[in-house]
Design a protein that fits this description.
Elements (H helix, E strand, L loop, with lengths): L1 H7 L7 E6 L2 E6 L1 H11 L4 E4 L9 E3 L3 E10 L2 E8 L13 E9 L2 E10 L4 H17 L24 H6 L7 H8 L2 H7 L4 H21 L1
Helix pairs in contact: 2-3
């Protein structure tokens, strides 16, 4: 516990960098600085990069991709850590490139799909992941542990937060009841509507009722 208290009390904020990926901003701690700080407090600290078949510093599975492992020993305590090799969008990298699709939004409205590519992993990617794994390993002893508080958020790109106005705006320029009914019956419109709370649905329903009534009066 003494190890944890000492290292956890160190402010690491001045030695981090932030990287935006999709709608997330991830914070990374410099591995070189992290290791130097640990050695200042515990000069006998050591780490190991796990080796596997053919002395390679990773394991690979065709379905799940690459994984690297490290262990850190401080005095009489050892912690192990593992980390998958991922690209800038936090997608698993494999031996061959592959594609995936994400939702495309235009002005807050779902507008089809975008195809993205995950490149094949290189030794540079693996080496970078090993050092990030080491940094994460050191966090298990307390150093910079707090910056991982948001690490387990969804990796997929999040949908923008939709307001009631976002939903009703699509109906404002409609000039006849047929257009409104057609839009309401669309699967994506119904799916979007169902995500709103009961109170928001009441606001939307009132807007649509008032809109229909105004068009009926014009007719």
């Amino acid at each position: 516990m003494e190890h944890f208290k000492k290292l956890n009390s160190i402010n690491v904020n001045e030695n981090t960098e932030q990287k935006k990926t999709g709608n997330q901003t991830l914070t990374y701690l410099s591995w070189a600085w992290a290791w130097a700080e640990v050695k200042k407090v515990y000069p006998n600290a050591s780490y190991e990069i796990k080796k596997f078949e053919n002395n390679l510093p990773y394991v690979y599975d065709e379905k799940t991709g690459y994984m690297v492992f490290t262990s850190v020993t401080i005095e009489d305590m050892t912690h192990e850590m593992w980390l998958p090799v991922m690209d800038g969008a936090n997608k698993t990298m494999k031996t061959e490139p592959y594609t995936y699709q994400v939702n495309k939004y235009t002005n807050g409205k779902l507008d089809g799909k975008i195809e993205k590519t995950v490149e094949s992993a290189t030794m540079f990617d693996i080496n970078k992941t090993i050092m990030r794994c080491l940094t994460k390993n050191l966090a298990m002893f307390g150093l910079g542990l707090y910056i991982y508080a948001g690490e387990d958020l969804p990796e997929e790109e999040k949908e923008p937060v939709k307001t009631v106005e976002d939903f009703t705006n699509k109906f404002k320029d409609f000039n006849n009841l047929e257009e409104i009914e057609k839009e309401i019956k669309k699967k994506e419109t119904l799916a979007e509507y169902n995500k709103y709370s009961k109170e928001d649905k009441e606001v939307i329903n009132k807007f649509l009722a008032d809109k229909k009534q105004s068009l009926e009066i014009k007719i």
